Description:
heterodimer, A: Rossmann fold, six-stranded mixed β-sheet, four-stranded antiparallel β-sheet, 12 helices, 22% strand, B: alpha/beta, four-stranded mixed β-sheet, 70% helix, 9% strand, elongated, ABC_MlaE_roteobac (chain B)
Amino acid sequence: MAERQQNQRVRRPEEAANSAARGAPVISVRNVVNRFGRQVVHDGVSLDVYPGEVLGIVGGSGSGKSVLLRTMLGLHRPNAGEVLIEGKDIMKMSNEELLAVKRRYGVTFQHGALFSSLTVAQNIQLPIHEYYKASEEALDALAKLRLAMVGLSADACTKLPSQLSGGMVKRAALARALALDPTLLFLDEPTAGLDPISAAEFDQLVLYLQRGLHLTVVMITHDLDTLVTTCDRVAVLIDKKIVADTLEGIMANPHPWIQEYFHGPRARAVQAPKDEK
Amino acid sequence: MLLESQQSGDSLTLRLSGDWCIENIREVEAAVAEIPADGKGTVHVDGSGVSKFDMSGAWLLHQRLDALRTAGANVEFSGQQPEVFHFLKEMAERECAPVRTSDEDAAPLRDGLAWIGRRAVQQGIQTRDAVGFFGHVSLTLGRSLRSLRSLRIPSIARHVYETGIQAIPIVSLIAFLISVIVAYLGAQQLQQFGAEIYTVDLVAIAVLREMGVLLTAIIVAGRSGSAFAAEIGVMRLNEEVDALQSMGVDYFEVLVLPRVIGLVIALPLLTIIADAMGLAGGALLSSLLLDISLTQFIPRVQAALAPTTFWAGLIKAPVFALLIAMVGTYRGMQVRDSSRELGRLTTVAVVQSIFLVIFADAVFAVVYVQLDF
């Protein structure tokens, strides 16, 4: 437990503010436009993700957070604009190149999306088995490693997803996302539906892995606690555009929705204990 | 080549190089296997030549080195220990959440006797559940018939449309083809006795009494039985059924009854269409193959049929419909937890409803003979 406390990030605004100086962006979204029929979801969205940072994406329901994530993953083709991963446009990549990119990122989905007919170990081994020819013993060892990384004991291996609790499903999904030793992690609402204690533990887990493995993390979240504890920068999807800044910078933004989000009754309840410190 | 080992006296030096990562997992495995397991003395590990270490590569090496340590060797890293190893070490010290599961693992099959016993109990429970399901449906039906509102007419109409009207093309086609086959077979055999005219009797009786209703029921079991099971099964997986229950809505009334009633209405109507198409097929083949024109065919059919023949076939339709709809919805309701379960129970629904339809048909045949119907 004491160690968990150490992981608690000490926020230094200047460090986060310098993120622009941290080198070339890993992902950069340029003027992306997404339309569904007549409804415009994104109208010229631009966003840079820098190596080694944790970027939180927030926005109201229906503001297109998930669509943005799917666009970054190359699962959705935008109507206009481009998505560059390490400087290369994923829309123009050949299938082989796209596969090579996909091997380098891990994704967790909102409801876990574990394959319900496979055991937890098989879920983790599936991507490894698809790409590399590892022996049974190595696959076993690797599955156990991923489980240990996310803090699940080895007896989870033989369980089916339906036998796990909500928090464990999230952890197992994270273990599967880490299967190919990615450098980039996408998390879609990682703490949604968890009790506050499990959610806080999950936040610490994400930070711990991010720090230990030098991951770049992009997460969609509604949880203000998660945002405050884990994220270096926050991107707000608002009026079909994006505003990205450090948490402090965003909170100072005069836009009414942002003010409501960070200074509404629920936000005050979250921040009150922090101000006392 | 990821590993060079050098044995000098009591100490072993391992020189690592290249990429120790998941992309070369095969090579990593081979390299790790080369490290002798009977470690004695001192093992020096030199990781300075490694260009890339990831968790997977480090883990396999780490496990081997740990095994060496427990065997009594003294493992030392010369120079800087790769950073991932620090992380691995830290990780090993972290406590893991124990896994609590919702239910116990099934005990391994110790012996045949226990297996037979367990299956027998399971069968008993299943039979009881099935009877209970039937009773519940009957009760709900009785209650619903008293008030029109709880009968859910729009829902019934939807199921009549989906299971009945949409099935007309395939049912007609199959009835037509089957009667052509029967007529063709019959004509060939009966021609030997100069009794071709009896082909008409054969087709008319076979189609009206058996083929029309049986084939229609089998097609509908495949089409709608599976649809019922899958639809309700997915609702179960999405917890929609629980949502209905929590609202105090009787899901038998909303989900099961409209399907049962819809199919009980649709299947007899489909059977009539199948009968008509079957006779049309017979008529066509008779005129092409046997030179029996339509004006001869119709009186012959009328002469061949007893007044009860048509009803003998049609009476079975609602019974078959009841069986198909019940099995489909019952199996759908049993879906729990996983997508595999959904697939399995949908298959079970189709196989069982076809079996039950044929079994019921056999019972009807015996009863008809006894009643001289």
